[in-house]
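Sequence in, structure out.
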Amino acid sequence: MQIENIKKVENIFIYFALIFGLFLIFMTPPFQSPDEPAHFAKAFSFAQGHFLSQKVNGIAGDYLPEAIIDFQNRYDPLFFNTNLRVSLSEIEQSKKILLDENKKIFVNQKYHAMYSPVAYAPQGTGVWIGKHITKSVYWIMITGKIFLLLFYILCGFWAIKSLPFGKWLCFLILLMPMSLSLGASLSADGILIAVSVLFASKVFQYAFQDKELRDRQLFLLCIFAILLALIKQSFLISLFVLFIPIKKYGKYGWLKIAGILMPAFIVSLLWSKYSYSLFVPMNNSNPEIQVHFIFEHPFVYAATLFKTLKAYFLPLIYSSIGVLGWLDVFLFPFMYWLYLCFLIANCFLKDKEEDKLLPANLWQKIFVPLYSILNFVVICTIIYVSWAVPYLISPFEGLQGRYFIPLLLPVLCMIYLLCNEKSEKKLPDWFKALNCIFLVLVYLNIGFGLFIRYYATF
């Protein structure tokens, strides 16, 4: 029985995520993940009990210990400078920077003030505990990362265990270098990926269970929807509850669906109204003008979006699978295509030991593409209105593959359902082992890339 438990996908995930996650935490120098200085500042604000940013002289931010800024300044020169390296002795020296909460300065958080405290709860809790264990800013930061990693592993374990099929797909999505590196950082994206994957897994579980949804299951879906609405204002992801057949909701089905989605919508609306007052446009963008432009010229915007996706297709593929560091540590190019091949291969092979496969109905087959396209277009549009200059019709910057990781599980699991609807092909044990061996090779590649980028002096 013990051997069988070790062979279960969710248990294998724990070992891999813990080992590779800790490896990423300690191998990646401090603040060498996208926007990590700002995320650390927000997590520290959470640890201080400051859940909302304050405005000083019209600037949103918070008062933080000077030691945090001193610590950050040690690593600032590495940002986007691939010619610079950091030595182990320099990291050891930075560990001696100690927290003094009597010396504080105001830190500008203008771009991340819009994130709700929910997006920093795990890592903020870790920072709070770290503050009571040590005064070293380095170890306080590490504690925050470890707590987010543990939260990510917990959600991932629950997600894989809940899925009635496609468990190995979920395993590969959660352990993609980009996914796990965010789950082992201080980023709000880590908690978004963890919660969205768990939410999608529960929806699949409830959609294919024999019984009607119970009250506690409805309540759980409502909680997930609210969390998604507060984590980077991702309310539209919660619409995936519509994948569950209406008959599964029992009597007053549409009223129950409204009971799941309306609280999340209201919370999202209220937080958006509050956070918009803290919004600072980037790159001379003007959201009001750009939204008006989109409605006035929808086909022009559609063409602009198409040109953008065409121009950045490969970077989006690469950055969804894994471009680490501050987006400057790459896998070998063939590794990205191998990872895609493994994802696709796992769509075509049914796991005879784990999967309880039921055919999808017509509505589900139509809904998943519509849901995915809607979320994809909205994410792109949010970047367009907040990053691009007004009236831009050429390809715009700002899109990154990590924004679309929450959509991967619904899309790939639907492909899995369609591929195995009439197929009897089974997932052999040797292919499961090959999935694991491939991931080991991927993380060896990541280790090599991080070493060359940050530590090698030859």
